[in-house]
Amino acid sequence: KHEVEFGVLSNFSYKLADDPNVELVIATTRLETMLGDTAVAVHPDDPRYQQLIGKMLVHPFLERQLPIIGDRELVDMNFGTGCVKVTPAHDPNDFLCGRRHNLPEINIFTDDGLMNENTGKFKGMKRYEARKALEEELTKLGQFKGKTDNAMRLGVCSRTGDVIEPLLKPQWWVDCKKMGADAAQAVRNGDLKIVPSDFEPTWYYWLDNIKDWCISRQLWWGHRIPAYKVVLTNGNVLDQDVWVVGRDEEEAMTRAKEKLPAGSTFELHQDEDVLDTWFSSGLFPFSVFGWPDVNADEFKAFYPTTLLETGHDILFFWVARMVMMGLTLTGQLPFKTVYLHAMVRDKHGRKMSKSLGNIIDPLEVICGSTLDQLLDKVVKGNLDPNEHKFAVKSLKEEFPQGIPECGADALRYGLIAYTQQARNMNLDVQRVVGYRNFCNKLWNATRFALSNLGDTFEFSKPYFDIVVHDGKLSFQDMWILKCLDKVAQSCEDSFRLYNLSDVVMSTYNFWLYEFCDIYLEAIKPIMNGEDAEQKKRSQHVLYHCIHAGLRLLHPAMPFVTEELYQRLPNRRKVEPDTPSIMLAKYPLPEFPQLDKVPGTNCAIEAVMDHTMKCVRALRSLRASYDVQRSVKPPVYIVCRTKESEEMTKVGSGVIQTLASAGEVHIVSKQDDIAKGCGVSVVDDNCDAAILLKGLVDFNAELLKLEASAVEKRIVLVKHQEKMKAPDFASKVPEAVQLRTREMVEKMEQELKSMEDLKEKFEKLLKETQ
Question: Is pLDDT of 382 > 80?
């Protein structure tokens, strides 16, 4: 065994046939392939060689002369000597050059990697033995000109580790020009829609520049090519190979008889090659429905289909092939829309790979995995030792506590949320954990809501329709139904436009912020109150919202929604023909009449927006003055316009509930507020105030505030002195300087807030004395 040298250019020369004193120096990384050279190419504009184009060179070992040709595509006159050997049978670029110049294509290798009969005295040698022998022989002739280092890419077989050698082999090809043009036109004229449309230029790029398609593969698995070679059995030999194709041997036999003279005796030998996987895959949309029998029941019922969902990385390799073959073989597009999802990468945007240790197995996210389990997979894998160390390090950094159990719903919901990223989705497991928490919130909120219904509750659609239209629903009931209509319309529009991430955002916001945070809290007084009729109305609204909300969520979160749907009380009595949420109708807007609060000119949504502004202002006041949640002090809402007064009156009950307030007083000016109130601005038309008298010891609060301010000033002064030091800017690291400046700005802002609060306390102290 001998070491083989790679990453070097071997320089040798060819001599001119009519003047042996003139030679052209060639550089190659595969010296043995010079035995298959059929020309030397130069750039037609290179002044060094223009006068030599058309002349012949002598091959030093074979009875072959090589023409000097001019080729602009193959040759870079500024690289090396500006001369390039052309070996059409063993290099893809040389092959194309050879076709442009009608050069012979001489194969120099056997299938076993030995030099063949076209290599003269080197026949029978292994390729790298021939390389060494050629170097020695060229040196003897004075035509070897030395070696130079050259970085190169080396194709290596993943199974055997052997260096791959390009060879010319007979292959089956498909002329794709017309098929490609038809497929491109289908998108241009709108018959086929690609979503997102960002990928249309990619579609046109591939199909407008399409090449012939090599569909044969030298493998033992796959669909065997239905091509048969005709072999005469009477000892005669045909002038040239005769091939026939057929769906089976019988059809091929019939076609062979039509090509041969009458009375010929022959056999058919089917080609051992198999079809390219993408060719077989391209048949999928119609072959599964009985094609080529276009009258088959399944074909007529299900072809063409409507939507294909796949990754954008195989837009040409698979999608375009299905479209081309569908149009050619059936006369119809196989589908009307292609929806392309993004490629899943890690949270840093890196492609997932074993060597990086950043592959996220969906099952590990669904079921959870400890760090030890993650590392065990790496240990039992087949990584290179260096890659193994890096993968282990990455896993420990990325998942120090392992991957928490998230469930299938959270993963599905998270992946759909990521679809707003068209090309790559940078998957962060912590975001999926956030959606797992949302699943828990959904479960607990629905269970809590169902407890307000009770096991005996039975939804009545006729009763519900009456109460929705009679104008007697509570404000919060009307608002949540309006929200439900809005999210239903949003989901409908988003599904039609394939904006799936918007479906996640709409349903998430409805359940978390509108249903859970506001509505469930706002109806507590009704559910705990004495008005039985009002409670019944709200129970029906609550049931309807849960029922419709689960149906809205179901496509993105199928499992938990099915479980909760089955727990709706007495649902099967109302819907005997809907055993599963999968069979339920997807919600659409139902309540267009719910626009304004009955008896007012106020839009329902505007009232709730105003109400929540008041609630947030009052909550902020409670937090600022540390008012205990159990205490419910009177509050004042100062309304400077008739509109804000009207909206406050409608929402006063919700304000009282969500702000944990006592009586809500609606006044028109600041002077009407009781003494000892903390005040906050709601907007330009409204203020909110909370009565603090008797709840806050202002003297004690002032003392605490002043003590805290003194401590903070001491720390602030120290940081300011550091920054004033002469060498602060030159010697202190930039990151430390930045942190110090941020700390100073933060403390200055805190001291300003303390000063503002001190003034408020002093004012309130005077008012209460």
Answer: no
